[in-house]
Amino acid sequence: MTYLAKPGLHHPTLSCNAIGFTRRDYEGKISTLCAGCGHDSISAAIIQACWELDIQPHRIAKLSGIGCSSKTPDYFLGQSHGFNTVHGRMPSVLTGANLANRSLTYLGVSGDGDSASIGIGQFVHAIRRGVDMTYIVENNGVYGLTKGQFSATADQGSVSKRGVANADSPLDLVTMALQLGASYVGRGFSGDKQQLVPLIKGALSHRGAAFLDVISPCVAFNNHAGSTKSYDYVREHNEAVNRLDVMPSRTAIELVHDAGTTIDVAQHDGRTLRLHKLDAGYDPRDRIAALNLIHQGNARGEVVTGLLFVDPDADDLHGHIGTVGTPLNALGSADLVPGAGVLEKINAALR
């Protein structure tokens, strides 16, 4: 199969942000994912967020692991630094890069298989250490590259495309991130652009571990009746903080949803998704209240989305371990090897 390359020329009337970049300057290659994949909507939201924040593309480092989600950094921020790691190891590589060069903005993109299965230990330690990063999990509940097996985030009782019910309890990465001390936690829906773009902008602007779990339906293997990660189910059971802009398989459904209300959205296959949006009075600064809200939503069969928690005074890994303000990769030999006298003072302080 042949894919056309994007044209390199920009129309002179394209709008520029405050630093002179057009939105196209934040794009990447043409996506090879399935038409209607929620991951492409997340890529578009990342592009929009970076353009609106006036971030210089070369000041961003994007990292990923293995999976459909981990292919997506090739489709956005084509002028940024990028590194595709091995399966589940993205958080460790990101942590090392962040310690070496704190001057970049770090964006980790992963999937529910990459982070909740083989990479669960990596996820846990990167979050608890407070690495200054935006960590996005594109969550579809299946292993798309290996034809739709349940992932660790698939809800118990959900049914696969072949009609098999999942008997295992799911991992909820949002509640884990809250309990591990993440200082910015949100959940979004790939089709809700009006909610997702501000969530990403807030995460990129936050100092500390910012985690976003984005429900991103797999149109090939997990967008059918019985799936709790489908466009239909999320629309029917979503309790959202922000407005909705839903992207169903192959066709976009757009709507306006007022805060504090519940709305039923008809799906292309005849099913209905119920969305409930939190009112404007919700306070995202209470970690315990956020955990309670998620569990209450789960008990009602609702998917709670929006900015669930933020610590406006959070610190990061550099602050925790007291690194110098200069990026480590910019330090000279005199700083890195100060001599035996300095070493003796350090050893004496530890005696």
UniProtKB/TrEMBL annotation:
It comes from the Bacteria. The keyword Nucleus does not apply. Signal peptide: none annotated. Pfam families: TPP_enzyme_C. Residues 66-214 form the Thiamine pyrophosphate enzyme TPP-binding domain. Keywords: Oxidoreductase. This is 2-oxoglutarate ferredoxin oxidoreductase subunit beta. It comes from Luteimonas terricola.
